Amino acid sequence: xxxxxxxxxxxxxxxxxxxxxxxxxxxxxxxxxxxxxxxxxxxxxxxxxxxxxxxxxxxxxxxxxxxxxxxxxxxxxxxxxxxxxxxxxxxxxxxxxxxxxxxxxxxxxxxxxxxxxxxxxxxxxxxxxxxxxxxxxxxxxxxxxxxxxxxxxxxxxxxxxxxxxxxxxxxxxxxxxxxxxxxxxxxxxxxxxxxxxxxxxxxxxxxxxxxxxxxxxxxxxxxxxxxxxxxxxxxxxxxxxxxxxxxxxxxxxxxxxxxxxxxxxxxxxxxxxxxxxxxxxxxxxxxxxxxxxxxxxxxxxxxxxxxxxxxxxxxxxxxxxxxxxxxxxxxxxxxxxxxxxxxxxxxxxxxxxxxxxxxxxxxxxxxxxxxxxxxxxxxxxxxxxxxxxxxxxxxxxxxxxxxxxxxxxxxxxxxxxxxxxxxxxxxxxxxxxxxxxxxxxxxxxxxxxxxxxxxxxxxxxxxxxxxxxxxxxxxxxxxxxxxxxxxxxxxxxxxxxxxxxxxxxxxxxxxxxxxxxxxxxxxxxxxxxxxxxxxxxxxxxxxxxxxxxxxxxxxxxxxxxxxxxxxxxxxxxxxxx
Length: 577
Ligand code: FHN
Description:
TIM Barrel, alpha/beta, Jelly Rolls, 30 strands, seven-stranded antiparallel β-sheet, 3 domains, globular, binds ligand FHN, 10 helices, single chain, eight-stranded parallel β-sheet
């Protein structure tokens, strides 16, 4: 995806992006009428995310809109929400000013279906939040659903009340969406960002109109990556999706604390604080921002399970925030098996998710290390270290003597003070546990014809793999040769559908494994959207008999096209046997 800069020069774009790059962590708030049914309609549990209840249960407009008459969030307290975001260490707040159900949380002259005119509460909650954000120095940003509006006869999404063939999207844009976007940009002072969502089949001219409205009214306001047609100030990842490798350019992962965005009484699938902190550092290590959601109740209360987790994250950030705020991606493009790396000029932060042996080895660091210490150690006591080079494989290795007990129960950070800009070997290096991780999106693609039909999808896979002529290649530095099991990781569709039985092979130059992709195991990857699963298929064994550089090739010898889904390849792992 290419992101445009609104005709701004790169320098002024960089200036505009500065607060956002420094922030790294923001609060998403999904709040609206859907908090009232909280996932249950007519006594029946409705599947899926809470804010989609109107759509999932096909609730007619005249029934759903009655919820507005019952929306009376007497416990709402803008100051409390803002205080929580601050305590969590979040630096911006993005709230659903209008979600797909069409109900606006702000006072709108463009539609009476809004918090002030349609509810007994009558208060402009957005104005109250704007005031508190300003006091607290938090950037306020607005989510706005520009294409879907299930309440409006001419917008997308509601085919149970309205006939899609008779809809006039331009009319909806003119009479509701654009005027409302202008309202949120003029009623509440300086806004950090407009966060558009689900552009669907919007035309480029329509996208431009939505984006231009922002830049004309507030030139410093950012636009996220879901305005449509790759236009925006940065790239938005798929929901809950963390890319498998470092990415170029700015990007953000919007993510949930449980499975839903809008409050759902029975969604208790809360992520642990440890996994949330891991995701935060993982995202920063790949160059992104983490926009983490809360779904307040109809009374205006942020669920206790969310509050607890956010406060713990804030506590961790108070001590370890140096490795997150204003930090850049890892100097290495690849993931580390033990955790993730973030950096600043003269500093490398090793964020340990699993605390290693006392004698830890980091492969590939080329910068000269001047000092190593634990970030939470106030005295910055020196950790003994040694740097050398493995001549057989030409891999630089840094050995650090660590304490036997981990300093932090979530993520422990070791700081390396280095000379100059941190630099790491960009090669794929065998991991310290002996495994070799070959990410599909970091392969070079050899195709017999010019160009390739394969694309890097928003969910971290190489997609659109429907023909056999492509060969993926990786250059790997092997430290410990041996025999390896070949595990292929492919991804299901949203909802779990998967097309298997493709025949694939992996060639190390001296041995080859071929096999059919069968579902040996299905699992969730915490770095992927919850609705997509990973399928593990073991296709055989290969050998690499010497240390040093090896070229490894992977190809599909036969693709099963029955369902037309093709192969969505995430990675191939070589596991030492
Ligand atoms: O459909 C919405 C969904 O309800 C939620 O708002 C998320 C947040 O990123 N965006 C859409 C799906 O991607």
